[in-house]
From TrEMBL:
Membrane-traversing stretches: 184-207
Classification via CDD domains: HisKA
Protein name (database record): histidine kinase
Subcellular location: Cell membrane
Record-level GO cellular component terms: plasma membrane
Organism: Novosphingobium fluoreni
Amino acid sequence: MRLPRPGSLMGQMLLAVAAALLLVQGLGAALVYRAQRERFQAETMSALAFRLIAKTRGMERAPRQMRMGPGLFSERLHRYPVQARGQAPLLPGEHRDLSAEEKLRDILATQDFPVTDVVVLRRPVAADPFASAALARRAARLALPREVIAHARRADLYIAGVRAPQTGGWMIARVRAPPLADALLLPLLLQTLAIYVVLVGVVALILRRITRPLDALTRQVARFAATQDPSGQVTPMGPEDMRRLIVALNAMEWRIASLLDEKDVMLGAIGHDLKTPLTALRVRIESVEDDTERARMAATIEDIVRTLDDILSLARVGRPSDPLERTELSALVSAVVEEFEDMGEAVELGDTERAVMELRPTWLRRALRNLIGNALRYGQTARISLARDKDTAVIRIEDDGPGIPEASIETMMQPFMRGDPSRNTETGGAGLGLALARAIADQHGGALHLANRLARNGTIDGLTAELRLPLG
């Protein structure tokens, strides 16, 4: 199974579960560590108190529970004898364990062992001369291996020094510190790992059951949006809610496809039923004797045919019938510019970069003709260039016209919106050119952007149309 992406539903859910589990497990581990540390400290202080009381009162007078020792550390109680000194065991640079001192003082008070001063600290065996000497004697007597001796010297000691009123001097007891970190680290790690494997694994299986049909449904909807072909629909699967969603989307796709088919049939009928009488009308006006009137009638018919063709093209752009072709974009742009040059129009082809991509050449030529035609109509000149911006091809068409008010730029790309509010065909068409160009850009996964070009004095110096097409 592939690892989920962090941005996906499954990835975010697993990250959330893992983060929550880490937080809870971390808090639990901290509480367990603290409880175990307090328990080990209490047992260690009990062992130190036992050593001190046994030294002072004798083993027979020690309480029964203390003669038995503190359980886990009973084998260590007599490893280091209690030492009598005239000063406290604290060396320069060492720090006292105040919480341990408080616990030891309380334990001694419960056993009627009054003390005036208590000092508790932690020190390595190797740094304590008394413990090092005792260890050396024991090692020589028992012939211990070097590895055992080295391990013993690396251990830590809890050292307690108390001064009783009846003696006035210091009694110092030593007990090896419990290996707290080693004792707790491995079980906590194993416990955390086991919980992660079980919980995250179960959550991953549940999420996989949800996200698998969702991923398939997403791919199908994206394919339908690009092709409007409802074939290959997703079979209902997953939880009941997901099954109902798949069934509803499948039904919606079939309904949309049926409506689009009906639209295509209707458009075909409209195109046939209108163009046929217009063609007949074009033939009949040839009998009009007045040349001026005949030219006006022919121009009106051409305008109707052109507008009808734009309307039909705009309606069909969402469901193109021609396939994508691998095309050299700079050559296509140059060919369109040459068409206008052959008609004597003021067009200029600027810098172009080679860009090869999958597109529908007929539709893209239509978009370029509309944009260049608008530039010539409103700005009298058109400058065309082609550049690459990372993975995007950018076709720019610039003119020297009056531009478009900023508030109206988006409106001008809507169908039947014209820069000239009159319906005079001498100053503009039916207002479909920009709408059709934007629809063709959307069809190729690109976009059409319009922006005014400003002069140094802040006035509008023309309009720039950018047709951006992805190269991927």
